[in-house]
Amino acid sequence: MPKVRITETVLRDAGQSLIATRLPYAKFEGALEMLDRAGYYSLECWGGATFDTCLRFLGEDPWKRLRDIKKRVTKTKLQMLLRGQNLLGYKHYPDDVVRRFVELSVKNGVDIIRIFDALNDVRNLEVSVKETIKHGGDAQVTISYTQSPVHNEATWAKMIKQIEEMGATSIAIKDMAGILAPKECYDFVKLIKENTKLPLHLHTHSTTGLAFMTYLKGVEAGADCIDTAISCRSGGTSQPATETLVHALEQFGYETGLDRAVLKEINDYFRPVQEEYIKNGLLDPKVMMTDADALTYQIPGGMLSNLISQLKQMNAMDKFSAVLEETPRVREDLGYPPLVTPTSQMVGVQAVNNVLAGERYKNVTKEVTAYLRGEYGLPPGKVSEELIQKVLGDEKPCTDRFAATLADGFEAGKKEIGAKARSDEDVLSYIVFPQVYEKFVDEREERERNRVRYSIVKA
Ligand code: CO
């Protein structure tokens, strides 16, 4: 029987897409043993926004969370999402920091690192890919899927070859906006299969309602693995449902290796958790609605909710449709970057600025300025000359790999944070999110003092 592997996203992307990653470890700890027993190919459980959210909102040490998961999940591979040279932050970090981060991710328990670059600039993937392999991890190199006049079969075929040459152990299509249609997916999978023998993983979102069909056609074309979410946390901006796909695929004669009785246990575990988030308002029903408009605007779910909250804060929701129309124009000016972290935020905020100021590029954000300087890599298409001239004047953009121009950062960061870091993992948390980490440590110390006080009182 042909096999299809399944990656479960309930611990990472499902939560990131539906409830802004606000799921503390304590709320999923009880499901880990079941998740390990179900027969998944891998559990996506770390990286992406989880790292930032742990430190910023949940008062959790992300490294400890990873080790705790690893202790309980002993058979199934753990998977993380890494933004290449951006690590889990929003700008490029020096190579020594990237290498140390990857090394410690593997040493703390990650088996598969899915690595992407927001511009599909392969130079930004190489350091993390090499380091992953060096430490025995699976380097899953990812194409950030997008549609534009400068993205065509030839661009993708070239990237696929480069991914193979880089030494990737598997390849993935990452469709963050859920715009990859069944026919496009079928053709894309065929194209990849013609150009490489690497195992192919598909990642999409249910945002536009295409996902089930897209996966089915992708599998038919030869995809080896799909990303799904347990049913009560699936749909909308999350992934399509695990159980439903298993049901459909098995009828076609595919073996998924998943135990349906265990899938039911997992779903029964998460259903009350999901209901709690509906009651406390963290799950906005809007994210569960099929959004066919996204087919036109190509805006990922997370970016859309950011735009809405930004406009609400500024009391400017009446400008929403103007911002939606400005977004593709800004993207065009910037040479059609795929909209994914951090370019999605960059393009979104600039579009809001352009509309609210009543004049395009009157206020240019520091991220767009850095982008124009070449600090994120090579844009896929031509950047507006007029915009470069306006923002940079005579300054020439950097065309080398930007990180190669940065001085080493690990030792300097270690010195800077001093005793507030208890380990090299802490130093990395500090380097990637300096203010957030310091606040996290201050609060942690406060909590520990309270605990000591409490135990003295009790004694
Ligand atoms: Co995703």
Features:
459 residues, alpha/beta, TIM Barrel, Cyclin A, domain 1, 8 strands, globular, binds cobalt (II) ion
Describe this protein's structure.
With 459 residues, this protein is an alpha/beta fold. It folds into three domains: 5-279, TIM Barrel; 285-403, Orthogonal Bundle (Cyclin A, domain 1); 409-458, no CATH class. Helix content is 49%, strand content 9%. The protein is built from 20 helices and eight strands. It has an eight-stranded parallel beta barrel, surrounded by five helices. α9 (211-220) links the parallel β7 and β8. The structure holds cobalt (II) ion. The site of cobalt (II) ion has 4 residues, from loops.
In short:
This protein is an alpha/beta fold.
Topology of helices and strands:
Blueprint: E1 5-8, H1 13-19, H2 32-37, E2 42-47, H3 50-58, H4 62-72, E3 77-82, H5 95-107, E4 112-115, H6 126-134, E5 138-144, H7 153-165, E6 170-174, H8 182-195, E7 200-203, H9 211-220, E8 225-228, H10 242-251, H11 260-279, H12 294-297, H13 301-313, H14 320-333, H15 343-357, H16 366-372, H17 385-392, H18 410-417, H19 424-432, H20 434-458
Parallel strand pairs: 1-2, 1-8, 2-3, 3-4, 4-5, 5-6, 6-7, 7-8
Helix pairs in contact: 5-6, 5-19, 7-8, 8-9, 13-15, 14-15, 18-19, 19-20
Cobalt (II) ion binds at residues 13, 176, 203, 205.
